[in-house]
Design a protein that fits this description.
The protein has six helices and four strands; from the N terminus they run αααββαβαβα. The protein has 156 residues and is of the alpha/beta class. It has a four-stranded parallel β-sheet with strand order 1-4-2-3, sandwiched between helices. α2 crosses α4 and α5 packs across α6. It is globular.
């Protein structure tokens, strides 16, 4: 276990693991049958060039890059933790930027960055259930962030 932690913590190790992870995610994408449900809402936002706050369940986060149209800027909220950094490297290889933070570490800074990103016209993706769960049960943070981003001026 120590060796694995040292590999994940090293820059070179994360580069190799993120390349393998991105390849795996691409393989899962091309071998998965997709059904789009209620896609008219994001399609409308994309057609109007508007930013949105997208929510994806934690266990489906890695496949999110494939439903997002190429060329549309998006950042995903991911934790500072070691696992989060590896996930950030993987999705970075798939064209997604990262906003670092979580409810327990760097939450206020991450919220400010999310709001400024949304106000700049880029979209943000979050996992409202988070890694600690409860699984597929949304916390109120995403709704709070969307309401703050929709205001004319925001003070945090």
């Amino acid at each position: 276990m120590r060796l694995l932690k040292r590999i994940v913590r090293s820059h070179a190790g994360r580069r190799v693991l993120s390349a393998i992870g991105a390849g795996y995610v691409r393989l899962v994408h091309v071998t998965t049958r997709w059904t789009h449900v209620r896609g008219e809402t994001p399609e409308k936002y994309w057609a109007e060039g508007r930013a949105m706050l997208g929510c994806f369940w934690h266990n489906r986060m890695l496949l999110m890059p494939f439903i997002w149209p190429q060329g549309r800027p998006i950042s995903m909220l991911i934790s500072h933790h070691g696992d989060g950094r590896l996930i950030s490297d993987i999705i970075g290889r798939l064209g997604i930027d990262t906003i670092a933070g979580s409810s327990s570490h760097g939450g206020a800074d991450a919220l400010r960055t999310m709001i400024s990103t949304l106000k700049s016209g880029a979209s943000v993706a979050v996992t409202p259930d988070g890694p600690r769960g409860p699984r597929m049960h949304a916390a109120a943070g995403a709704v709070h962030a969307a309401r703050l981003a929709d205001r004319k001026s925001t003070r945090l």
